[in-house]
């Protein structure tokens, strides 16, 4: 691959267009391979709640890099090891869960960037074609890779502007289910209080030049997300596609 090229980041930050991707929750390389050419703008490989190990992650990145849809990774925590694993495997961006403070947002950026902007360590890994393209990768990675954090708690809502102002942070992604839980609403994702919190995230992104993102599970949620101004939208997940497809055939 050589130096990383991530045209989606430039489009999202420049033209403010809306992109549609999906979550990869199954840890199945076959499932990812089967849907990778359907027209999604990006894929988010989940390593927080799925069984994707480093070897599986590397294989998933290998079949995505340079083939159209941008490969992203939701890491399991704000942790330098996990961030390095994702980027070294070839990810064009990372998403860190449960970020509630400016300090956590700054740490996420630091772990994702090479010095002097951050503390990421260099390695002759897949992202740089095992060292063959390291010189170019080191010069371009900070600019080309995307750094996102998830807004999922009351504390995050209380610190929205401080989080959104962090330099080097590109994406604020609402985790709708965890946010709903943390607002005391269990699974009532369509509650007006959730929608109001989501609107606040979009407005903070607009004030600070960040990309607002979220995940939807049905057409009603998609319409609401677009109407609210979200521009990085996950259309459900590979597992949900499997379940809904199976139900469709059984009902038919």
Give a verbal description of the structure.
This protein has 252 residues and is of the alpha/beta class. The chain has a single domain (7-146, 215-251), classed as TIM Barrel. It is built from twelve helices and eight strands. The chain has an eight-stranded parallel β-barrel with strand order 1-2-3-4-5-6-7-8, surrounded by eight helices. The longest helix has 17 residues, at 192-208.
What labels describe this entry?
single chain, 252 residues, alpha/beta, TIM Barrel, 8 strands
Strands, helices and their partners?
Blueprint: H1 7-14, E1 19-24, H2 29-35, E2 42-46, H3 54-64, E3 70-74, H4 80-89, E4 93-96, H5 102-112, H6 134-144, E5 146-151, H7 154-158, H8 160-164, E6 171-174, H9 176-182, H10 192-208, E7 211-216, H11 219-228, E8 232-237, H12 238-251
Parallel strand pairs: 1-2, 1-8, 2-3, 3-4, 4-5, 5-6, 6-7, 7-8
Summarize the structure.
This protein has helices spanning 7-14, 29-35, 54-64, 80-89, 102-112, 134-144, 154-158, 160-164, 176-182, 192-208, 219-228, 238-251; strands at 19-24, 42-46, 70-74, 93-96, 146-151, 171-174, 211-216, 232-237. With 252 residues, the chain is α/β, with parallel strands linked by helices.
Number of domains: 1
Shape: globular
Separate helix tally:
12
Instruction: Tell me, rounded to a whole number, the average pLDDT.
Output: 96
In percent terms, what proportion of residues is strand? Answer: 15-25%
């Amino acid at each position: 691959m050589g130096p990383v090229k991530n045209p989606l980041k430039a489009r999202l930050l420049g033209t403010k267009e809306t992109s549609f991707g999906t979550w990869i929750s199954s840890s199945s390389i076959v499932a990812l391979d089967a849907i990778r050419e359907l027209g999604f703008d990006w894929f988010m490989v989940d390593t927080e709640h799925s069984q994707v190990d480093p070897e599986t992650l590397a294989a998933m990145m290998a079949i995505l890099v340079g083939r159209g849809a941008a490969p992203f990774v939701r890491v399991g925590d704000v942790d330098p090891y996990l961030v390095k694993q994702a980027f070294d495997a070839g990810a064009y961006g990372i998403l860190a869960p449960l970020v509630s403070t400016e300090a956590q947002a700054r740490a996420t950026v630091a772990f994702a960037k090479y010095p002097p902007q951050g503390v990421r360590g260099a390695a002759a890994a897949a992202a740089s074609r095992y060292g063959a393209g390291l010189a170019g990768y080191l010069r371009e990675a900070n600019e080309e890779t995307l750094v996102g954090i998830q807004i999922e708690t009351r504390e995050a809502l209380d610190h929205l502007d401080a989080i959104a102002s962090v330099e080097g942070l590109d994406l604020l992604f609402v985790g709708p289910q965890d946010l709903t839980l943390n607002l005391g609403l269990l699974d009532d994702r369509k509650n007006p209080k959730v929608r109001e919190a989501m609107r606040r995230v979009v407005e903070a992104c607009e004030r600070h030049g960040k990309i607002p993102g979220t995940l939807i599970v049905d057409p009603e949620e998609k319409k609401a997300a677009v109407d609210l101004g979200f521009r990085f939208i996950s259309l459900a997940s590979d597992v949900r596609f499997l379940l809904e497809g199976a139900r469709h055939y059984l009902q038919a």
